[in-house]
Amino acid sequence: MLDDLALARAVTPVFEAPGRARGLANLCYVDPAYHRLEAERLLARDWLCVGTGADIPARGDTMAVDAAGQPVLLVRDHDSIVRAFHNVCRHRGSILVEGSRSGPAIVCPYHSWSYALDGRLVRTPEVGGHGLHDCASVDKDALGLLPVRVSLWLDFVFVNLSGDAPPLETVVAPMAARWSDYATDRLVHAAADTYELRANWKLAVENYLECYHLPWVHPALNGYSPLAEHEYRVFADRFFGPVTHSYRASAPPETALPEFPGLPAARRLEGEYPIAFPNLLLGIQRDHLFGIIVDPLAVDRTRERLHIYTVDDGTERPAAERARIAAAVAGLAAGWREVFTEDIGIVERLQRGRASSTFDGGRLTAFHDGCTQRFMQLVARAVAPTAAPGA
Ligand code: FES
Ligand SMILES: [Fe+2]
């Protein structure tokens, strides 16, 4: 059992001054009790990214997701509104949907109770005996699916299980304002990919938040977007990460993609890679946006879901040009796949390193690990509020 003292000791070193701070203790990456606490105190109370609108594009589409260890169902209803419900039947508690499904109703596989896309319980076959589809003890009006608070930004779907986080719109406002130069209403879903990591989810995030490793882990990327062209930015309380000033500075014309219309010239070589705390890793460039949804599956297991969006700039193009762009998009997706798979082995090494009792959280460097430290501080404030300075 994890006591408060052990928890405080595990997280306080991240509040030291930059250059003196150590990282979170090993237990934050390996201990199942800590993992449950983190789900309860951080992931269930915050806005957690669990999917995209593109995952459920049509009315009646549903997709099962895990949110802080709890089964949740995303639904696109008859009015094309994205809703979320606890993915559990009100009768005997069966999981309703596994994976992705589509249909006019959500039907439980156990006894076929059916729910409308707005969550109302509409059918309870044979519930009162042979041929009796209603009964006094089953009040359909009181047994609809339990809703989960849900909100979208860009195309990303966020849920807040506790129901009391500040409105998502308020939370993302500073980043949305910073990106107001980008016509994000022109983004279209272009590609998706999934990666499995034998590592804690925080290590995947922490690795994303520094580019110190570029020359050694991503030599090809470092060739066209060198470490020296990067720096770190804090855009807002919950949005921070690396930026580059040489995005595709010398890209060949055949790989060019439609760009955000009206983007100021000063932005053309910029790429910004902030986290949307806690679990969405974003990247925006002149011709596309991507997001990696980091799913904490277990204390030592993580899934990353990459979604790439390109720009529909409204220009009519001949077929040959459309084919060239389609090939360029495929090349872009393959390029990101190369980069993100290069990270997997390293992140898994970080996980295995945390089996060493001698590892004390290491040293967070002042220059490169500021964003990592900030991420750890946000995690620490949520899981051990009394350990944080000023608490
Ligand atoms: S558990 Fe769903 S209908 Fe019985
Ligand atoms: Fe990397």
Set out the fold topology.
Blueprint: H1 4-11, H2 27-30, H3 32-43, E1 48-52, E2 61-67, E3 70-76, E4 82-86, E5 100-102, E6 105-107, E7 114-116, E8 121-123, E9 149-153, E10 156-160, H4 168-178, E11 187-197, H5 201-208, H6 214-217, H7 219-224, E12 230-236, E13 239-244, E14 271-272, E15 275-276, E16 280-285, E17 288-298, E18 301-311, H8 319-353, H9 370-383
Antiparallel strand pairs: 1-10, 2-3, 2-5, 3-4, 6-7, 7-8, 9-10, 11-18, 12-13, 13-14, 13-15, 15-16, 16-17, 17-18
Bound molecules: FE2/S2 (inorganic) cluster and fe (ii) ion (FE2).
Residues 89, 91-92, 94, 108, 110-111, 113 line the site of FE2/S2 (inorganic) cluster (FES).
Describe this entry's structure for a reader.
The chain has 391 residues and is of the alpha+beta class. The chain folds into two domains: 55-151, Rieske [2Fe-2S] iron-sulphur domain (Rieske Iron-sulfur Protein), CATH 2.102.10.10; 182-381, Alpha-Beta Complex (Naphthalene 1,2-dioxygenase Alpha Subunit, Chain A, domain 1). It is 26% helix and 26% strand. The protein contains nine helices and 18 strands. The protein has helices at 4-11, 27-30, 32-43, 168-178, 201-208, 214-217, 219-224, 319-353, 370-383; strands spanning 48-52, 61-67, 70-76, 82-86, 100-102, 105-107, 114-116, 121-123, 149-153, 156-160, 187-197, 230-236, 239-244, 271-272, 275-276, 280-285, 288-298, 301-311. The strands form four sheets. Strands 11, 12, 13, 14, 15, 16, 17 and 18 form an eight-stranded antiparallel beta sheet that branches. A four-stranded antiparallel beta sheet has the order 4-3-2-5, with no helix packed on it. Strand 2 (61-67) and strand 3 (70-76) form a beta hairpin. Helix 5 (201-208) runs antiparallel to helix 9. The longest helix has 35 residues, at 319-353. The protein is globular and about 75 Å long. The chain starts with a helix and ends in an 8-residue tail after the last helix. The mean pLDDT is 96. Bound molecules: FE2/S2 (inorganic) cluster and fe (ii) ion (FE2). The site of FE2/S2 (inorganic) cluster (FES) has 8 residues, from loops.
